[in-house]
Each structure stands twice: as C-alpha cells, then as structure tokens.
Amino acid sequence: MPFKKLQPDILEALARLEITNATPFQERSIPVIKSGVNVFCTASVSAGKTTTLILTTLQKLKCEAVGNAPRAVVLVENKEKALELYRAFLNFAKHTSLRVYVGYEALHIDIQKSEIFEGVDILITTPKNMNKLFLLNGVSISQLLLFSVDDAEFLLQKSDWNAILSITQSIPKCQYVLYSEKLNPKLKRFESYFMERAKTIGT
C-alpha cells in the first residue's frame, strides 16, 4: 500500500485525520511521483488529487525544514484556492518543522518578500504572483525540488499560461507534477517546455 511507504510523520498525520485507505488514483500515482519523474495526474474531483499533492510534497521534503529557500512550489488558480490548500497543508504538517507559506496578489509584494526571506519550505501561490516575486528577486528557486500545479486547467488562460512558462524557463532541474481532471491537449504541450519525458497517471 502507498501509505505504508511514507515518512513516519505523514503516517501519524494520516492516522490523526482518520485516513486509512488510499484511493485507486493514489495507489497508482504516489509510487510514480515518489520516483522523481515528471507526471501528469488526471482524475475526477473526488479521487484524492489534492491529498496526493500534499502527501508527496511532504515526502519529498522528508517532513523537515531545511535552509531558507523554498524546496517546493505549488501553483493554484487564485487567492481562495491558495488559502484552502494552505489550510490543508497545515493539517498534515502541523507536527513537523516544515514552514508553509501562502502568497497572492492582494498581499503587498514587499510583505511577501520579507516573509519569504525569513525561511520557507513550501510556497503556495498563483502563477502571476510567483512570476512577480521572481522578477523582483523576492524568491529564490535555487533549492527547488518539486513544482506542482493543483487543478491545472486554469493554466489554459493566456495570462497564467505565459506566467508559468516565464517561471519555468529560469528554474534549474526539478520535478514537475500537474494535477487536472482531464489532460487537455494544450496542457500536454508543456512536455515541449518543462515536462520532459512526463508520465501520465489517470483513473
């Protein structure tokens, strides 16, 4: 079972949250994501995509704080989605030393820069906000290990599409995982930009 091969801190969180069984999607996707390859993950709303994102991120970072620069970035569509995912991450990571930070356009960029500078392990934000932080030297991507997108269909919008291409052009080698309900042909085109040799896991 995928859950049995996760960090002890993650297993404790799963027990605390009374999550005992992996969904079929999680059984297929977690081992592949853990292997370190780029992955397109497609599944329905109730398949457990967001929980998979959280579990594999915590696993990748070994549930411990290291350094000051983000080692995982998660992009979402808007402020509401960012705050919702932030709360979900805190539920799982509350007994670890991991530092989770959420940023969005409505929060002044200088505040975000100063707070990120204090030290962050997981950064949750939107493509446009991430791009702005990057252009203003507000975030270092030198230690980045994992770059994920939750409900990636929003990237089909031109502004978000352009923002993620701008961001990924400057990122050194890291793992990319995109989660969506269906693999739109335009999302598949990311293989030509940053999702090299990506595997596709679906339900």
From TrEMBL:
Record keywords: ATP-binding, Helicase, Hydrolase, Nucleotide-binding
SUPFAM superfamilies according to UniProt: P-loop containing nucleoside triphosphate hydrolases (SSF52540)
UniProt-recorded Gene Ontology molecular function terms: ATP binding; helicase activity; hydrolase activity; nucleic acid binding
Superkingdom of origin: Bacteria
Any Pfam family: DEAD
Helicase ATP-binding domain residues: 30-201
The keyword Isomerase is assigned to this record: no
Name this polypeptide is given: DEAD/DEAH box helicase
Species this protein is from: Aggregatimonas sangjinii
